[in-house]
Amino acid sequence: MTNTMQKENIDLYWRLIQEEFKAFGISIESFDAFLYLLALLYFNKTNTHLEKTNLLPNSNGLFGSLAKGLLKLTEDKDDKYIIEETNSVFNDIIERWPAAFIENLDLNFLSSYALKTEYDIEKENFPLFFEILLKRYLETQGRNAGLTILPEEISKFVCDITATSSEQVIYNPFAGLASFGMYSNENSVYVGEELDERIAALANCRLWLRKNKMHKAVYSGDSFDSKLEFKNSVDLFVASPPFKLKERHFEEKLISHSLKLTSDTGKVLLLLPNNFFNSGRKDHKELRKKLINEDLVDKVISFPGGLLPNSGIPFTILLLDKNKEVPKYVAFVKADAFVNTNKRQKTLTYSGLSAAIIEGTNSDSIKRVSISDIKGTQLHPNLYFTKEFKGELLGTVLKSLYPKRINEEENITGKYFRFGSDQKADSSLTIDSSTIESVEIPKSAVELSETCIIITNRGSELKVALFEYAGVPIYVSQLSNCFIANLEYDKDISLEYVSYALLSDTAQEQLKLYSSMSSVFVMNKNDIQKIRIEIPSFKEQLEKLKVLRDTHYNFQLNKREFDKLIAKTKDEALRNYQSLNHSLRQYLNNLKSNAAGTKSFLLKNEGKALDLDIIYSKNLNITFREHLEHMNASIESMNTLLKSLDNEKKQVKVEKMSLDKLVSSALRRFNSLDNFKFTKPYKDESSFVTEKGYFNAEIEMNKDDFFNIFSNIISNANHGFTNSSKEYVIATSIMNDFEKGELILEISNNGDPMPEGFTYNKLITRGEKNSRSSGTGIGGADIKQTLEKHNAYFEIISDPEDAFPVKYSLHFPAVNSATFDKITE
To answer: Which long-range contacts (CB under 8 A, 24 or more apart) does 567-570 make?
Structure first.
């Protein structure tokens, strides 16, 4: 079965079965029971000694005989228990299905695994077919933590680095859909445990199909209160618990449980979020210290975010080993170099990573570190792949300040400092408290009444300010980290110099190191105090301050200019989108009216013999054929407009055209809108008569651009058609101006005049709208921009006393090569 044929058939199969569930009003959530039936039938077909059965209800209970057939594959009482439990879980669901639904499933979706394309899924491809259907089902279930499949390459990687040549007993708590069990070695006995019995049952179906053997199973049960009893000690304890599991001292319980279950030579592999490996929590630090001191940590492998389903969170694998090959050493591994990114999808090259780890040679991705060189209790690999930073630890230069908290019962008014809003680009990092307005202080604030450095961060951006106390306190968020000079430090310190040093590239590089080890990173005081900065003599600190202030000032100015450029780019993108939307809406309105007119015309002529040359509109003097051609032209214009998005930088097609014909085409194209009518176009023939003869005027224009301009003018005119009882008219007239070398098109209407004060400049300003408009305020700007592409321009005339108070006057350069016809009397 080719991949293309397989995908086509599976796509069809999945769509049809969803329709079947929907037709009987059965939730797709119970699709897991259908997958169970597929698994049963697969065993019934592939094991020919089993008694053949059908899918109809019987005295042994629905599908009971199929499950009994499966029981004949094994004599092991544990295996029989799993089969019976799995059958019981899904049997409860299937019993509620209507008989007609089951018959349809049997006929169309189960028997011989036949698809409606009459293409059978072959036996050797069936496990893969099952896995693809399972993934389609999981996609319908959203971000349910239990219903996820660990990526195949991560499961295979785990199995590779824990494999042995001898028989293994593997215990997998929090098993989910048994992703680890799917790729464990043939000589292993895999036992999973999963709290959700439906997930456990579905996991067993996967395992049966994967190995076609019964020595792998997932039991339903609480992984922390397991009732399982193992005949032999566990050789490998492997777990990928949910990251958001709310359990007090979770890691300690999990690791303690794993070490208790495993044999004297056993291994423990845990897939955990990054914060465990470098957090300052007391319980985490003590647990890491215990593991390090007892020489249990064998490997720590970090992975970037984007590898796990439905999550961008980075994670780390911790491998504990009671019988390490290389005692007193820990292998730290960064897997980043083995991760491929294709568009938004990240995949792990597991075989290359496994080979590199097994080889064990130090490299840019692997480093063996002696236990004596472990940095405190820090176990995240990133800390062991960085250069050594020079300078003093911030914790030796500065001392933590613990500001006064606000009394809940007090209502205080004072100066509340916020980063950004209370800092200016033309100032230093020193806070000018005289510019901070007094406000009511929030209860979550703290009071600063001492000179100090204020530091906050979220993610990889560090924000620093210097407060110099002069008798008036300020207030800041209690999330701020505040530091004062450490008087015990052996050098004099300029706090302003230290403030700038914290914004240096070196400090930012250290911050980036810490932030890469967490998904949502906020530095605490302990982390900040680990940053190293170089401290020269006090005299040098003062000498460097002017350069640092100027550098900071220029950086802030450049940043603001850059931010403005980004904002401008965003605004332009939004305006272009609004412009496209505005133009398309006019075409759609026209098509809607044309479609309604076509319907009325067909109903009026129902039962009559029609041909395309019959008159469609006497007023417009057009045939039904011409009417359909105009509709098609509108669709083509929409298509051209959409294509222009991909060709913005390409030259638009310009051709010589008669302005008369362009106007006539536009009138026919937009003639079917209900709230106005076009008058017969007027042409000032006398302005085209010269001594040489009659001037055959042409302009150079892109046809679709002309229609867009015309469409925008009509759209703007519509805003003035406010009286439903009045008959509104749009008039067009063409004239020639020999002196200026221009052809002029005037488009006027008898709607409401422009509001007083609404000028041409306001009309061409994007976002400006007159008071009667409910539109986006972009039509005039589009008209100007499009005309300028063709060296043309327009004027707007508003005269409340005129019968046609609003007039657009469009000026086009006349083509120099125009010819003259002899005038005949």
So the answer is: none
